Amino acid sequence: MMQTIAKIDNVTHKYKGAAENSLDGVSLTIHKGETILLCGASGSGKTSVIRLLNGLIPHYYHGDMTGYVTVNGHDIAKTQLYELAGIVGTVFQNPRSQFFSVDTDGEIVFGPENIGLEPKEINARKEIIAEQMKLDKLLGRSLFELSGGEKQRIACASVAALLPEIILLDEPSSNLDMQAVSMLHDIICEWKKQGKTIIISEHRLWYLKDIADRVIYMDKGRIVREWSGNDFAELSEEETKQMKLRPTNINERYLALLSGNDESGSRHTDVSDGIILREFYFSYNHKPCLLRRKIFTAADGDDLSLCIPKLTIPKGKVTAVIGSNGTGKSTFLRCICGLEKDCTGVIISKGKEYRKRQRIGFSYMVMQDVNHQLFTDSVEKEVLLSMKEKDIIRCHEILDTLGLLEYKGTHPMALSGGQKQRVAIASAIAAGAELLLFDEPTSGLDYAHMEKVGELLRQLADSGSTVLVSTHDPEFIELCCDHTLRIKKGRVDSLD
């Protein structure tokens, strides 16, 4: 007989200030050693279930709640969060929200230090976790220097170092490249062998189909369907689409491409009509002199974080910018739009040159962490802010297309991560720039909203805009991208 380690009993919950319930009569029994996958569209209640199990509901996220939750014999409503530290570990969608240190080593050992372990035991745990998760290249580094995917790996390591009985993961792969997803898959398998109970809320499903014992499908705060892991893996692409889920199987060609395992080698597509990038050089290690700044050239070689003597981007097309975490994709986009002020480089379009500050007006970028570019107190005002000439009708059309019209009066910071991402995309569309840059726009999005973003990028390209989109999603590339541009160590490795 399987031992119950956690139980959610008829829970209904509404966040403070919300109009609708986040959970509606949810009941779920979790057995010791089980691996459960929670799936469903954005806003279906997956993250709220995670918050029930780690105690953030009701102790941090206040609101109206009925029903009961027990975890390893503890009544969650009567148990303080610190009492759950050695029982439940959580990896959040945005790893920055759970960091307490400024360097990787300090973050990994923070949990064990906090529960009072001996220094010898703390160091032993760090070494074991670092070896298991292949973190040797990330140790001894500042957290501020890491890419989004690298931060997620450190967040996983910091949770694993506490050796909890239950591990909760909320969209753990959203910012990871294919190699890192493969590592995450192996780590979850290792946790499973150790007898851990694992609950994963995810939109990416293909890498978990051989791991999950049970799959729970949620919709509008309710558990609607349940499958065994094997039965779920057999669902057709049409069946998953109908439930607004990403596919359980991915085109092997795109997996190989994103993993860097395709055997076709370095190559470049001939581009007759395009936007030319010339002499784009940049280094994060550059320290300007007091009287003058160093002018970078290709001769600086390996010292450069970005080294692109010349590149022609296909005009009026959607080009996927691919490459491993930390290889320079975000740096590439930031340099193009002028966010990195020390970056040299000229953009040439229709015979006109754009330098330094001029690049800012020529392009518009949607950042990976959209919290950095949400400024107003309503969704409607946010989109209008990007327009050269205010157009309420056009604003509402864009919001309606992205499924955001009902939130036009809502403060952007009150939205979910996926909704914030869509607001930023709406602002980019409204800006009408000639070159549009998107840094991981589909991370955290369900299939339906990913499809909408893909359709919008296609419309933008068809209307004459040139789109560069950094992505790790093979589904998204297959959906809307005309070309792929691989960045490797700040250099252009291939353009297909």
UniProtKB/TrEMBL annotation:
Name one cellular component (GO) term: ATP-binding cassette (ABC) transporter complex
Provide the membrane topology annotation.
Peripheral membrane protein
* Superkingdom in the source lineage: Bacteria
From the Swiss-Prot or TrEMBL record, state where the protein is found: Cell membrane
User: What main location does UniProt list?
Assistant: membrane
Q: Sorted alphabetically, which keywords does the UniProt record give?
A: ATP-binding, Cell membrane, Membrane, Nucleotide-binding, Repeat, Translocase, Transport
Q: What is the role of this chain?
A: Probably part of an ABC transporter complex. Responsible for energy coupling to the transport system.
* Family the UniProt entry places it in: Belongs to the ABC transporter superfamily.
Descriptive protein name:
Energy-coupling factor transport system ATP-binding protein
- The species this protein was found in: Ruminococcus albus
